[in-house]
Design brief:
The chain is mostly helical. The protein is built from 24 helices and six strands. Helix 6 packs antiparallel against helix 7 and helix 7 packs antiparallel against helix 10. It comes from Drosophila lebanonensis.
């Protein structure tokens, strides 16, 4: 039987990140820009513009202005420290029918102190969202706008689970292309929606398609490079994601209309259909599926573009490997399935692992809620909401860089805990101590987003290193899916600001604080052997770590079980 083919060994011959990989890596990064923008487009398409009641006694019949000098006489509102009056959105003072002022005048004598609800509104600026089109105004409709975000995250949950399976079954490339085109088509349909229910349906479908673009680009990118380039490939892809989110803020600032924004994000990705001929299938997937001949064609092409020579021994090994793998495939598949179910049973039988993974689930949920909640809440900050949103997105780039540095210098546990505690401190500070100091609030807000971004980047690596090999992929998938379920609450958190302005940031800070402290109970995995078995995973929390797979199979003592 021929020696097993290892793609990492093959990469040493063709180059770990040569011209061929660099070109394909750039190609798979481009759709991520649009996936990132689509993932948060509802922030602006379903955003709430400034509006107030239309005052028939005072407002012009055509193109009335939002801000006038008589607003304080006609409706309740609040004054800020700059003596700027902000009118109430849905209440006005009742008209005093017994008072008549000169034409063109509007004074307090024309109104009574009692208030009433209004059903006509004046909007500030040129911003056009679904609020105007379908009259989703006032507090009684606020849940409908938040529901758009929740529906989006529900689509992400469905799509993540679905496309992860399909990519393993039918290949990375085809499913990646399907997700891109499906995202584009449903995004255009979202812009063509004729009412609120149809908008929700297309938002759900758009999220399903969007959910597959980044994960599959991540997998394709990691699988095409060598060991020394894997961290780089994942970090750079995250840079593209952050830039794509920021470009959404630019598009919203330039276009103002929710339909135009949706078209701008959805029509260009239709051009990526040419990837069917440009982007190759994952060689690792082909080898795992015993498609050695197809893998050989791609490897030869990569070697040619990278100007490398393949050894004759490697070329001759492909056909023999295919015959050997086909003969052993049925037995291997049955054996692997038994190992997976046995590992799952062992995990639930271990109090140590159950407690450890419950803590991880909580940390994942907090990461998702705070990460997306801060992005959504950025448009509620004082100042230019488009600039604030773009800054909150771009701060992710140094956040991912910080995670990369901390993972190498501080280890996993301190990196995770430190990132969460940084987010906690800055969120609480910006929401409470510095309320009213706009520049300082925004600065602290950005540092909080940097912290939670770093935490999100660390948690992926940390979780994978705590899972036994046989259930590592499924375990990380379960954690990620649970996080997305938690993120379904994020769109509703900004609504709490209507009761107390600082409440959303205080909640983000409190949840990050508890997650950061709980993370200190987890074992350190930096520079330790990846656990192959459940016993290895349990041993991560003990002082004596199993060094070989054979020693890790030995039964563990009660003292090991007591360590989380």
């Amino acid at each position: 039987m021929a020696a097993a083919l290892d793609f990492d060994d093959i990469l040493t011959e063709i180059g770990e990140f040569g011209r061929y990989q660099r070109r394909n890596y750039l190609l798979i990064c481009l759709p991520v820009l649009f996936a990132a923008a689509n993932s948060l487009s509802y922030v602006f398409t379903a955003g709430t513009p400034k509006y107030r009641c239309y005052i028939a006694e005072c407002d012009a019949d055509i193109s009335p202005e939002y801000q006038t000098d008589w607003l304080e006489h006609a409706m309740p509102g609040t004054w800020d420290k700059h003596h700027q009056f902000t009118p109430a959105t849905c209440d006005r003072y009742m008209a005093n029918d017994s008072s008549y002022d000169q034409a063109g005048q509007c004074s307090s004598s024309q109104f009574l102190p009692q208030t009433e609800r209004c059903n006509q509104f004046v909007y500030d600026g040129q911003e056009q969202t679904i609020v105007q089109d379908w009259q989703l105004t006032c507090k009684e409709n606020a849940w409908k706008l938040a529901l758009v975000g929740t529906i989006h995250f529900a689509g992400l949950v469905v799509g993540t689970a679905l496309f992860g399976y399909l990519a393993d079954r039918f290949g990375r490339k085809l499913v990646f292309l399907f997700c891109i085109i499906f995202m584009a088509v449903t995004g255009v349909a979202q812009g063509l929606a004729w009412d609120y229910p149809s908008f929700l349906v297309f938002a759900l479908l758009n999220a399903v398609g969007t959910s597959g673009v980044y994960p599959l680009a991540f997998i394709i990118g990691v699988e095409m490079v060598g060991i020394r380039k894997r961290e780089m490939s994942s970090i750079v892809l995250n840079y593209f994601y952050a830039i794509g989110e920021a470009l959404l803020g630019l598009a919203a600032w330039l276009l103002h209309d929710w339909q135009l924004i949706q078209y701008a994000l959805s029509i260009p990705p239709l051009c990526f259909f040419v990837y069917f001929w440009l982007v190759p299938e994952s060689v690792r997937w082909l080898l795992a599926r015993n498609e050695h001949e197809k893998a050989g064609v791609i490897i030869k092409r990569a070697a040619h573009v990278n100007r490398r020579e393949l050894s004759l021994e490697l070329l001759a090994n492909f056909k023999q490997q295919q015959l050997d793998a086909q003969n052993n495939k049925p037995q291997q598949k049955s054996h692997e399935e038994r190992k997976i179910w046995l590992a799952v049973k062992q995990v639930f039988a271990s109090r140590t692992l159950v407690i450890r993974y419950i803590i991880m689930l909580y940390i994942w949920a907090v990461n998702a809620i705070v990460y997306y909640g801060l992005s959504l809440n950025s448009t509620s900050l004082s100042g230019n909401k488009y600039l604030n949103f773009a800054l909150v997105c771009l701060i992710e780039i140094p956040g991912y860089s910080l995670a990369w540095l901390c993972l190498r210098k501080l280890g996993r546990r301190l990196s995770l805990s430190g990132s969460l505690l940084l987010c906690a401190i800055t969120c609480v500070t910006s929401g409470y101590i510095t309320l009213g100091n706009n520049w300082l609030v925004i600065t602290l807000f950005l540092i909080g987003k940097l912290g939670i971004t770093s935490s999100f980047a660390v948690i992926y690596t940390y979780t994978a290193e705590m899972m036994p090999t046989v259930i590592r992929s499924g375990g990380v998938g379960i954690m990620s899916t649970f996080a997305r379920c938690g993120a379904m609450l994020a769109p509703f958190v900004p609504l709490l600001g209507g009761y107390y302005e600082s409440l959303p940031l205080l909640l983000f800070g409190a949840s990050s604080l508890t997650a950061g402290l709980l993370s200190l109970l987890l074992p350190e995995t930096f520079n330790k052997k990846l656990p192959d078995t459940v016993a290895d995973a349990i041993a991560l929390g003990s002082k004596r770590i199993a060094r070989t797979s054979s020693s890790s199979r030995c039964s563990h003592s009660p003292q090991k079980e007591s360590n989380i």
